[in-house]
Amino acid sequence: MKQLFFKLFFIASLVIGGISLLQALSHPGETKIYLTRGIDTRGPVIDGRMTEKVWETAEWGTDFIQKQPYEGKAPSQKTAFKILYDRQYLYVGIRAFDTEPGRIVYRKSRRDNCEGDWVQVIIDSYHDFRTGFSFSVNAAGVKKDALISNDGKGLDENWEPIWYVKTAADDLGWTAEMKIPLSQLRFDLKEDRPWGLYVARFLHRKEEISEWKLVPRQAPGLVSLFGELRGMKPVKTKPNVQLLPYIVGEYYHFDGKANTFPSCERSNRFDIGLDGKIGLTDNLTLDLTVNPDFGQVEADPSEINLTAFETFFQEKRPFFIEGNNILDFEITGGDLDTGKDNLFYSRRIGRAPHYDPRDAGFENVSGPDYTTILAAFKLTGKTRGGFSIGILESVTAKETASVTHTGEQSETQATVEPLTNYFVLRLQKDYNEGNTSFGGMFTAVNRDLSDPQPEFLHRGAYTGGLDFQHNWKNKEWKVYANTIFSYVYGEKEAILRTQQSSRRYFQRPDASHVTLDPDRTSLTGHGGTVGLDKNGGRWLFSSGVTWRSPGLELNDTGYLHKADMIMQWLWNSYRITEPFGIFHQLDISIDEWHGWNFAGETIFNGINVALKSQFKNYWGLTARIERNGEWLSTSDLRGGPALLQPGGWKSALAIHSDERKKLRVQLEACNYRGDSDSSRKTTLSAGVTYRPNRALSLSLTPALDMFKQKLQYVETARPDSQKRYIFAHIDLKTLSVTFRLNYSITPDLSVQFYGEPFISTGKYTRFKKITRPRAHEYNDRFHIYDDDEITYDPGEDDYYIDEKGEDGKRFSFPDPDFNFLQFRSNLVVRWEYTPGSALYLVWAQGRTDFTHDAGTFSAADRMKDLFNLPPCNIFLLKFTYRLKI
């Protein structure tokens, strides 16, 4: 296996090295320049009208070019802008002319949801050709801001700087005035050093984008093709110190039985905390938080996970989202499971406690749902030498739970999560105007394991990586590589648990390339990726190799879906971005992938063809067909031998209506059929969004999932020295309905509601045991228990197996049928009463029930059962106030 691995690596290195030697550099097109003016007098009043005389000192920036739908043509409406600055602020005024002002689309919404007609300004104040600070506003005055990284490929919409903007309408169209504090940008302003500048406008009724400096739709990047803002003289900004203390009160109400909804057993609380932002220099910013509160953050969606692997959830907490692009170390990318692998996964910090006392036999447990974050800070920015730096340090509290056995009165305390320190360091250096970069990352987790309960956790976990990328031919081509390592140590129990986890299963009896060692106290691993991409033009291309060694472990600070894997991929796409025939745009792609484990066995392979299009009536259609080959599952038997699974065909079709309209509809259907009739899955979903007026938006998204599979894991039985891997045919039906309401009274005062009823029923039949997991014929891989071998005891709710033959044994397992009901909702009233300061009023409600009685799936009956459950109500009032020092 090692020889195969090094051959692959050597071949990939030769190909990439040869391409690098043969690179052909070309020069970018003509640079467009806007010359700004400095002012010594009072800046303009921000009222959206641009009537102050100070605006007359600036020249108009004009000659916008249409980007969409007809690239290179004159826009249907003219746009012009002016830019001024003083020692504290950058002022931007934009006039969006419109010969039909009555057709301008004004849409109110919460900040960052910028719909309707809008204008946008992006500043590359580093002038590194990679990073941009984006400021947008729509005709109704709703503002949106974002951090752009990696030449437009990275977008952080959760960055929320303090800036000011107003809009106004007149007979000529509409206007916008922006006042952007220089302290909110990051720069090293030297004499004659320009800033990158991008100005754009979106005309909603025609879905038309026009730009001051055209960035072609088939361009490989964004920031590297900006125009230039010149005339900025060196300025010394005031230190940017912002403190955001908060006060929160939380009230819990629950009428249900004790211990049925643990999150509602907590006491009512009154708490205080602090968030802060300190500009150490014009380039470096320190963000800090003490006792952070995320009570207003929307809950994760409900799910049923019958696999052996952890579900990946998106980060939603503002402190960890903002600037997260700097702390990113994505190993592969893409849509496959390996695409989420990363050295840093911020959901690890403040996660649910690792230890559940119920596993130790305690029936009554009262403890926290999440680990308290005592304090955290982030240092992010870019130095004068071109180093991007990101440092995160966080400490989470020791958490305990009150536990008792049924019938006992006295409570004892069990440690469910130890005191833990998290550290992340990310460095990256740009060269050659951002065309070449080198970087590295290091993470560390250290836990205090003085209490016995969490000794199954790693005492220490360290990961690191190095990455490199080089772009040429105006960034149309890119070669990149990274390599990572991991080292974890702890008690024997902790490392044994790591070896036996679903990510590696060292105990597999047929795994000849790994060995389970119960005496180990540490484990190391490595991984990486080598790839080549073409990012510009009509034809796009990506190919590479990625690997994860069996001992790789990232899940203390990062995310690793599966170790023991080598994968090759090849992706091609052909896109037409200008209108033709019935299409506005069309994209056709084909890709293939193949994976092996470190024993050289093929574990998966597949091919996919996809089409994505938009018609000239602004409707859209996407279609996809995928073929998966026979694959080898090393996880289905939960540590047993690998199971050969049939391949199958997957198809998907989605269509959406004109997104400019008040009523928008999206329909999607996805279907999978396994070979040998091994599995069937059909997913149907619909989305309806309605905007009856400027301020109100309603959306409803129902989804129905129907899944049947002949081999679903149930249990591993051990009636004697031989394990029995029990499987069954599962009939799983899941229905969810997501409802959202957004009502914006003003751009600073909004009401948002999110609600999702979720019901899932799983019925298990035709129980069987795995006999020959790699048999050539699918039906030879298992034995179905007949009526003489299996009986059901409704009193005990157990199945009993009486094996035939001389050595037959009797054993039992619980009925796996289940019925899961859950409702999650929250209502948030948010008032930003002054820029950076807000008042939140939150009502969150949850209902949950899990029983082992599947029965017949009935949406109406299950919905009735769900809303008859006692609700857990949480009321929260949070007040924040920004102190600028």
Concise summary:
This protein has 885 residues and is mostly beta strands. It has four helices and 48 strands.
Description:
The protein has 885 residues and is mainly β. The protein has a domain at 31-230: Immunoglobulin-like, CATH 2.60.40. 5% of the residues lie in helices and 49% in strands. It has a 24-stranded antiparallel barrel. Strands 1, 3, 6, 7, 8, 9, 12, 13 and 14 form a nine-stranded mixed beta sheet that branches. The protein has a five-stranded mixed beta sheet with strand order 2-4-5-11-10, with no helix packed on it. Strand 29 and strand 30 form a beta hairpin.
Low-confidence parts lasting 5 or more residues at pLDDT below 50?
A: 1-28
CATH C-level category of the domain at 31-230: Mainly Beta
Query: What is the share of helical residues?
Result: under 10%
Describe the main β-sheet briefly. 24 strands, antiparallel, barrel
Question: Pairing-aware structural class of the strands and helices?
Answer: mainly beta
Question: What radius of gyration results from the CA coordinates?
Answer: 29 Å
- How many DSSP helices? 4
**Could you say what the CATH architecture of the domain at 31-230 is?**
Sandwich
Nearest-integer average pLDDT: 89
- Distance between the terminal alpha carbons, to the nearest Å? 61 Å
- Number of DSSP-assigned strands: 48
Characterize the overall form. Answer: globular
CATH topology of the domain at 31-230: Immunoglobulin-like
Percent of sequence in beta strands: over 45%
